[in-house]
Amino acid sequence: MNVNIETSWNQQLKEEFSKPYFTALANFVKTEYKNHTCYPKGSEIFAAFDHCSFDDVKVVIIGQDPYHGTGQANGLCFSVAGGIANPPSLINIFKEIETDINVPFPSNGNLERWAKQGVLLLNATLTVRAHQAGSHQNKGWEEFTNAVIQKISDHKKNVVFLLWGGYAKKKGAKIDTSKHCVLTSGHPSPLSANRGYWFGNKHFSKTNSYLAETNQMRVNW
Asked: Which stretches of 53-180 are DSSP H helices?
């Protein structure tokens, strides 16, 4: 796995790339991609960083695994490549946006448009074997993405962190809430959303209100 990552992120994370755990992770990922079908494609493993520089980050959404269905994952959490049917969690995200801020369903589920506005769409694990959810967990990605979150918390201010579900909340445990905005709710998956833990969280309007209060551009959701 060649780490070809956007320049500002490379500056922040270069120490991570030289650590033993990352070397082991890179070797594991190379072997997996050689011997199995894995997602996203190799050039998109670091897409979340490539589409949203460290300097531009103002919102962070934390997911868990990339989608493991054929052609779905594009390196951005909750996002799918253009032309792919929206997964249930993404449909529920768009439903909440529609009721919260009256933005209609988009034509596709590719969230690059958010990333280019400063929304870091970060999965905790950046790769997965096809049709095997969680297959690349506990191989080192979690340590890497913990370092990413820590860098943002330590070196930036007034970032909005959207933590959806128990996993994301644990992932965000070390965020400095004295200088960042942390919004939590249930996960947008049908299991959680249909129990009343997702709909009505108004995270999209709340995010934009905070950004406006801190003299940052609102996100066009």
From this structure: 88-101, 112-115, 141-155, 166-171
